Each structure stands twice: as C-alpha cells, then as structure tokens.
Known about the structure:
- By secondary structure, the chain is an alpha/beta fold.
- It is built from 16 helices and 18 strands.
- The strands form 4 sheets. Strands 1, 2, 3, 4, 5, 16, 17 and 18 form an 8-stranded mixed beta sheet that branches. The chain has a 5-stranded parallel beta sheet with strand order 9-10-13-14-15.
- The two termini are 24 Å apart.
Amino acid sequence: MLAxxxxxxxxxxxxxxPANRFDSPADVLIIDGKISxxxxxxxxxxxxxxxDAMGKIVxxxxxxxxxxxxxxxxxxxxxxxxxxxxxxxxGFTSVVCMPNTxxxxxxxxxxxxxxxxxxxxxxxxxxxxxAITKNIAGEELAPIGGLKHAGIVAITDDGHCIQNNELxxxxxEYAKMFGLPVMDHCQDYSLVTEGVMHEGYWSTVLGxxxxxxxxxxxxxxxNILLAELTGAKIHCQHLSAAGSVALLREAKKRGVPIxxxxxxxxxxxxxxxxxxxxxxxxxxxKGLAKFQGGELPEWPKYDTNFKMxxxxxxxxxxxxxxxxxxxxxxxxLCSDHAPHCDYEKEVExxxxxxxxxxxxxxxxxxxxxxVHTKRISLADMxxxxxxxxxxxxxLNKGTLSAGxxxxxxxxxxxxxxxxxxxxxxxxxxxxxxxxxxxxxxxxATIVAGKLVWAERNESVAV
Length: 462
Ligand SMILES: [Zn+2]
C-alpha cells in the first residue's frame, strides 16, 4: 500500500488551538495535508511518519500579516524564496506580502504574477495585498474590484498613507463593497514632515528630526471616524503610540469596525536605543539586560538598524502597546519584516531607509516580552498570530479543526538561543537583534501536512 502523502502524526505535545479553546496534551494526526484528528493516544497507519513533539507547543501555523517580500523589483533586498525561508525558520506557515514594490502591486496582472511565483518558489503560503491607490501615490484609486478578483486579501498603501480623507472614504466604500479590509499605515505627512525618529528627549539630545506620536494618532482617529461612517473594516498597522491605543480602545467599546497590530520592536525597544546600547541597557532596557546575562549586545549611537517607520517610541508608549495587547485592544501580532541591503543601511541616520527584518525573531520576542512576563497568556499570544489575523483577512486558516489545512507550528517556548547574523535566512541583515539572547524558538514548520523545516536536522523538504 502506498503511504499517504503529506501525512504526519505529531505526538506528545501540548496542543494550543485558541480558535477551538483547546489547550491540552494531545496528538495531532494529519492525513493528505488536512487535520484528521486531535486527541489523546491517537493511532495511525504504520506508514504515517511520527513526529515527537514532547515538551513542545503544537499550534495552528503562525500567520504574519505584515511582511515585505520585495517582489517584484527589489530582489536585491529579498525575494519570495528567501523571504518565505525566513518565515519558515521563524515558525510561520503563512505570510501576507505588502504591495509597495517596484512596480507596486496595483493591477490584477501583478497580483497574478506574485501568486504564481509564490506557488513555485515560496516554501510557505503567501497571501497578497493590493495597493489602495495607483502606484501608492495617494491620488487615484487602484482597480480594487479587479484586484479582489485576482485574489488579494486586503488593500493597503503601506509605507505610505492616503492624506486626502475624501479619497480614503471612497477607498473604504469600495473595500466594503468587495468585502476587503483596509490596512493603513498611519502617518500624517504635515505633522511628520522629514522626521526620522520619535520626537522627544532623545531626538533633541541626538539632534535628529522628530516624528511626533501625534502624526500617527491623528490618522488613527481619522480611520476610526471613517470606519464608523462607511462600515468598512479598517486595520491600523504597526501601532507605536500610547494615544493610538487609547483611541482604539474607546472606539472598539462603541463597536466601530477597527482593529490594530503591534510589532515586537515597538514593545521591546525604545527611542533610547538610537543613542546606543549603553544608554538603552542603563535605562529603558534594564529589565531586558538581566536576561541577557553578562555580555550585553552592543551597538553604536545612530545605528540605522534602529530606524523604522513608525519609529521606536518612549518607554511610556512601549508600556501602552503592551497594555493594549494585554486587554485585547490590539488583537494581532506581526513583524513588519522590511529587508534592506547593507549598502542602503550603511549611511547617515537621516538617509537610511526605514525598516528592519523580523520574521525570525518575532516569536521569541513576543514570548519573552508578553508571555514569559505573564503579561498575556500563551493561548492569547497564539491567537494573535493565528485565528485573529485569519479572521480579519477571511483566510481559511488559523485553526486545528478537523478538515482544516494542516498548517502547524511546533515550538519550544523555553529554548534559549542567540540570534546570529550568519544564521539568518533572509537576504538582508538589517536586524537590531543580532547577538541577543532570546527565549523561545520554532522547532518545526508544517505547511499543508508537509514538514518544510525542523530544528534538529535543518531539513528542508520542498
Ligand atoms: Zn508601514
């Protein structure tokens, strides 16, 4: 008899499936790429390979809904193969790529191109977003209906923000008509102007132009009003400011269809890091320094791996983001994985592009800063990486229900390791976390029943 394809029996792990409120030691049986059963002491035909998950967490495949894969046009930074390899190593079975490419993903043809290429070269699932406006120029709407037919899961001008509120209103109306969420990079250009870091104490000390928190908050408030007016689902990307969390909290209480996401760098680091490692570890990084042990990771001041958009903010903002994650105001975690070449980042702080890589560190940093600190439960963190993004984007993912696609992540929440530059699978090396001791690591990544990566043998079966 032929062995069933893409079948596995995961044994002995702690299965956490927030969509089904399931958290218990159990086996997971996968047959032909689908979840067949979850339960104790499952038996399977001898031909099905067992996978020992003892001591590990077994959960629905993690989804990162905010990733820059840089195709088409910017493949010196990243491509579909390297970006999805980084996702796989980070424990992610699905990524959602942003449309600010060259050209922008603003036509059905480009969506089709990326989907075909991802099918061929990607090692995890790739979902595509379309631009809200043509060429992400903020002036004229992209053909949203055509993009939807081509298979996009959301619209966004990420990297940019539509300043014209009437245009944004129309985008919301079309998005609602086509059942698409609008994901927005919240940045008011007239307030932010040429800002390169958080406007506050450190921007003054360092003599860098400030990007005030209000530059984000104004657009979050605008989005709340437009979501209420149009009934469209608006999702605020990479929230960084305390005021944004407060606005979102109040709006959600009123039932406005608004949501938000947070990235690890905004709830781990602060603007003090731009002043160099010593300043960070001695002030806002004190709590984190203890875990790092004797030798603290070092970096100089003006290190461009601490330049991102929106910028790292104050300790108060960092605390507010954690609070928002804890009370459910922010229901999604993601990386904003934004690869850039060394030569692009190795310039003066003012001139460097915004963004850092994140797919390989986000699980560990979320565990460290949110779960190990008892800020949120393990199940809650997993929900923010699985069922919550799946619901927002209407993806048929994010659960281990029988019959679901067998996308599964196995991770060790307590594994201590050091993130090394040479170990990254991304094509780019712009991470602020190289040399950091981290706690929590993916052990295996399973996509549609296929073990695409496992920690022990580094095997890639694609
Ligand atoms: Zn953005």
